[in-house]
Amino acid sequence: MHKLIQLLGRLLFWSAIVGIVVMALSQLLGRYFWQFELFTHYVPHLAVLILLAVAIFPDKHFLFTNSKPSSRILLRIILAAIGISLAIWSLQPFSIILNAFTPNIRLDSNITTPTTIAYQNVNINNLATDETLQQLVNPASHSGSFPDVVALVEAGGLNWNDRLNKLAKQYPTHCGINENSPFAMQVFTNINASCDIIMLSGFPVARLKISSTTSTGLISTVSSQASPDSLDKQKILYVAHPPPPLGRNLAILRNQYFAQLAKLIKSDQHHSVMVIGDFNLSAFSPVYRDFMSQSKGTNNYLRRTTLTGLPTWRPFGIGIDHVLVNSNEEAVNTKAIDWQGSDHRGFIIK
Q1: Which domain holds residue 194?
Q2: Are residues 241 and 317 in the same domain?
Q3: d(Cα 76, Cα 72) in Å, to the nearest integer?
Q4: Distance of alpha carbon 210 from alpha carbon 229, whole angstroms
Q5: What is the pTM of this model?
Q6: What is the pLDDT of residues 283-314, one digit of tens each?
Q7: Does 27 score more than 90 pLDDT?
Q8: I want to staple 29 with a disulfide (CB 3.0 to 4.6 A). Which of 36, 56, 118, 133 is the partner?
């Protein structure tokens, strides 16, 4: 039994060492080489691997022939520090964890209240389309009311036509691309809004502009103490789905997509902006950090409403679906829901 544990310890140790080297290269070179960038998806997995290697550490005869105990202790401490650092990175922003244990208190009444949004990459080949949509639009999932906006990625073609027609009757404002491809996209809303599809590097992004006042009262009116500038603020929702970086050309197109999207977001910086979608991009990627930096405006920046390490794509347990809001958006509550027929996790955003 002891030999088996030592064998496991050696395997974990060297796997952790290789993982650390590869992860360091992915951070340094991932911006330039798509092959390295793929490894940025696995920061949470590497954190677990390293901490397991620390817990089941190999014996001294395997690591060093005549090593001092202090050397082994130092190496173990270094590995533990790296593992804990990666785990902390995966759990950012901590405010999301803290908010789970505190009441959702809104301090600023000058910004429009969050509209209820249901989002999911529903999978073009979904075999349980009815169940998937039921979870997204079921009033029981939204405190007894239907969502104001339904945003669907990979919803198109014959597999989805009947379901989309039913949604169109319930949500009169609609824009999308109804094709039998992974880049089909649909956005529905029943509130006062305009919707259009913008092509970036040949791939779609939906832009929904919600009026500052609605007949249903789902968007909060501005308080009497609001500044004149806040009267012009609107809520703008971007739904993004660039291509996956599987090859040099697709990686370049995806990066160009985000560079162009960042310019759009920056031009809307005085509005309340939300960006949701399947980014085909890890929050640990240098490309993601570039996008966040490029979209930053004057005293305005994008921030996350989900944990950095939250797995959203089921096959590999990686996080590539994101919900971002800018500084004008306050008190956003994002709830992750089950995959329910899709390979991507959905979100309810309020």
Answers
A1: 106-349
A2: yes
A3: 6
A4: 17
A5: 0.88
A6: 999 999 999 999 998 878 999 999 999 999 99
A7: yes
A8: 36
